[in-house]
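Troubleshooting log. The previous run stalled partway through. Resubmitting the same two chains, unchanged.
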Amino acid sequence: MIGSAGARRADEAVGLDCRLGSTGRRSWLLICAFAIVLAMPAAHVNAADLRGHGGPIMSVAISDDGQRALTGSFDYSMIYWRVTGDEPQIIHRFDEHDGAVNAVAFVPGTDLAVAASDDGVVRLWDLESGELEHRFEGHSHKVVDVAVSGDGAILASAAWDRTVRLWDVRSKTLVAVLEGHRNNVNAVAFSGDGEAVFSGSYDGTIRMWNTSDGALHRIVLDFGWGVNELRVMPANTSLLFGALDGTVATLDIETGKVSDPLVQHEGPVLSLMVNPASSIAASGGGDGQIHVWDFRNWLPLRDHENPYGPIWTMALGGDQQSIYYGSLDDFAIHWQMFPERPYEHVRSNFPRRFQVSEEMSVGERQFARKCSICHTLTPESANRAGPTLYGVFGRRAGSLPGYAYSDALLNSDIVWNEETIEQLFDHGPQEFVPGTKMPLQRMANAEERSALIVFLKEATQGD
Amino acid sequence: MARMKFLCDAERCIECNACVTACKNEHEVPWGINRRRVVTINDGGPGERSISVACMHCSDAPCMAVCPVDCFYQTDEGVVLHSKDLCIGCGYCFYACPFGAPQYPQVGNFGSRGKMDKCTFCNGGPEDDHSDAEFRSYGRNRLGEGKLPLCAEMCSTRALLAGDGDRVSDIYRERVIARGFGSGAWGWGRAYPGQGS
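Second attempt completed without errors. Output:
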């Protein structure tokens, strides 16, 4: 384990100006205190956070030029951002997914991006026009990771149907189905030259495949614990991987030798980041910890903790001084690493909207716990996964402008009232409106159903 | 208050899969879902061992820590349960569980958004005890009837132990002393940190 002295050396090694140099200790303290006071009124708000989603952020990616970002969210959408200037700006919001967006990536050398979704489809989006270019269909379960080769020609998707699929981005055809994993495939990455694909699975193995024909080259590692995350290091001779038992380590591709753990998270490793230009690597875990290294010597640079949730995804900011990460919040948090702020505000909302108090009525509690993750009661839908319930009584199903309904709802003649909402939750959406995007949500208790309807009738009327 | 624990004695498990069958039958677990399964290590080779695996009802359960909608809860007896009314089927808990316990039923045209299902230590769920709604969503509440999980009750070699952690420990300690070699209790140290290998 490398201690704080190592961290200081590492700061010097990469020339980071994270201290105040010749400023005296007294002045330094005053400046820190002033900075804290300045920061206080801005509690819970950071202009650089990526705010626009209506559900937790599941994936974040930064373009090679550092000026644009992509975020995928539980709210069934991907957002394309401009991240130059003080405040990020939304360029396009892509909401035509039928499930949560688990992974997003830019296609190098093009104005295209890919988004992998819970609905088993990988979508190719034109970032300039905002139009859907193609749907890569074939997976039979949720797609949880995507990677694009360096030349932008081949796309790899990893899914919980235990396969990796390779797709030709230009011809929009399936190249190969990589079969052999004995459990869900969680991670996929291309080698630097694009000739090999690596996949990491819950079955504990990391496998190497030929990009050209999809043939298994060999099993590089049988780690035992599930592999959640995988990155190819720039020298193309080793991998960085994160496992279910909290291990973050490097793997020599040729020999299969695993390094001593760089860190042991107290929980599963859920995100990794490697940035060749800045020589920075980082890991995030279920313990809410982020660890940052200079990967040239693996000296630690920074540690950060989010006390309110795991670190599901992360990407280095274009300034190479900050990290965007996704946790349980509806926004990607911008954490400034260098220079480190004297006091880092926790921006997470706590308690969250579904964490209820005893004072709530039964109906309000039902809404908060079972509906509010996807719906609002206000005229604005807040980009949540489902449409707003404002004015829902008397509204024809699938009729709210601006929401991307499923065909099942668009073609439905249901009108929402006490009776139909009662049936919806008694039988469940899958039975009441087969084909709906709404997840399985039954309410077995008739009293709770009635209480919810009474609450909704009152709360959705508006002023 | 007793804290409920599972322990699988890998020296005794004969891979008969009776625990798996008993679980599926008792709770009428749907096709495609296995709350319990038997894993064999070094199959056919030296040191072959079989282990019955399900939710280990961890003291500091990682699934609870990562759930975005806070659908898990732990009973006074240490059983980790969840509410299917609240679960959104996101799959986050699967990434976190070292035992592969969370299962997701196939729903609709793709596998996503089905409510997570897992071993309940035969303790039902948040619905009223022994109600039809509880049985349909979570299976039998044997603990509420004063009984222990059926998987362990059915185990012919008594490889799979379930019950008050202190009693389970006592039984296992006697076995280890009688054998005169290591514990063989796979997963114990992972589920209950600081309490053995």
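Takeaways: Helices of chain A lie at 4-13, 25-39, 362-370, 407-410, 418-427, 429-432, 446-459. Chain A has two domains: 8-30+46-336, 362-459.
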